[in-house]
Amino acid sequence: MDEREQLGSRTSDREGVHERVLALGVKNLVVSYDRLLVIDGVDLWVERGEIVAVLGPSGCGKTTLLKAILGLVDYTGEVLLNSERVGYMPQRDTLFEWMNCIDNVSLPLRLNGMSKREARTMAMEYLKKVQLEDWAYRWVYELSGGMRQRVSLARALVTGAKILLMDEPFSSVDAQTRRSLQLLFSELVARENITVLLVTHSVEEAVFLADRIVLLSQRPARVRRIFDVELKKPRTIEILDEPIYQKLVSRIYQEIFSSSS
């Protein structure tokens, strides 16, 4: 079944029968840089409200996949988006040090012509969602790494984006902060019904956050395998002790190392 055929189809999940609505998909995607073939015929889809994680070797083309969806690189094939509002959260935040938090978050709204007062009002709502309203008028350089990533998440969503592309968003912080961000993120996207395509190098992060995991091959990237993650959402810290979580982490590592040996 291709991505278009999934629109409006019905399937059963852990909660019963629900409508499957395509939010994002790529079909037969091919990307080359000059004569270097980076992505070779990738097909994937993300349903509305779903989190799909993309795993693969370093340099295989995961970030290029996101760039193609955003229209930042040339490609052949098809990119399907069920929304004009797409947020992007890169590996390193692009916050402006000379601006406070609320003005960093409101910047996309200001660039779209919204008044400063209206933009700040909306930005404050999103700072509340990431639990940083008390830091709204503090300078970015005063924030910890985890706080900066929360501001970056608020800015990615402030325009009302319902599709979020993320490139290693939590990789720059320590392990404890990373887990805290993952928990906040899981609760937020479940509550707001946000669709996410998440690029990560971490098998544990992919299993902890995602509904499905797409494993890519060495460059040129092709889809090697897709794993379903049968864990309840939003995710909680107790999931780390569940056999399903532990077995799937082990299974994915086995798949990765079996191909590299």
Automatic annotation (TrEMBL):
CDD domains with a match to the protein in the record: ABC_NrtD_SsuB_transporters
Please provide the record's keywords in A-Z order: ATP-binding, Nucleotide-binding, Transport
**GO MF:** ATP binding; ATP hydrolysis activity
| Keyword Transport included in the entry's annotation | yes
Its domain of life reads: Bacteria
Record-annotated ABC transporter domain positions: 24-243
Write out the transmembrane intervals.
none
What this protein is called in its record is: ABC transporter
